[in-house]
Amino acid sequence: MNSTIRKIFTTINSIGQLPKKIIVHGLQLANGLLIVALILFFINSSIYNFDYNITFITFVMAKTGLTIFAEAIIGGLLVDYFIKKV
Fold first, then answer.
1. What is the pTM of this model?
2. 39 versus 11: which is more confidently predicted?
3. I need a labelling partner for 8 at 20 to 30 A (CA). Which of 14, 31, 51, 58 fits?
4. Are 15 and 80 in contact (CB under 8 A)?
């Protein structure tokens, strides 16, 4: 188990600068969207008494945040793979 974790950390540390930037900025954007969606959810549940439009916007923002989260990680790893391959 310890060697598996060590392999994961060495692989992550060997990622190039451009893929790291793609992953970091993508995760920042995804976290920002998720935080805004969470704030809208709490505002909707406390002030607006569950307005349907705000509920829909909150759901779409959370879904988009999770999609960007996955795309940033996968995209960064693919860019790293193609840079190392060429």
1. 0.84
2. 39
3. 31
4. yes
**Is 1 strand, coil or helix?**
coil
Which own/partner pairs from 78-86 qualify as long-range (CB within 8 Å, at least 24 positions apart)?
Answer: 79/18, 79/19, 79/22, 80/15, 80/16, 80/18, 80/19, 83/16, 83/18, 83/19, 84/16
List helix spans (H) across the chain: 2-13, 17-46, 52-85
For 56, phi then psi, to 5°, come to -65, -45
Amino acid at position 55, single letter: T
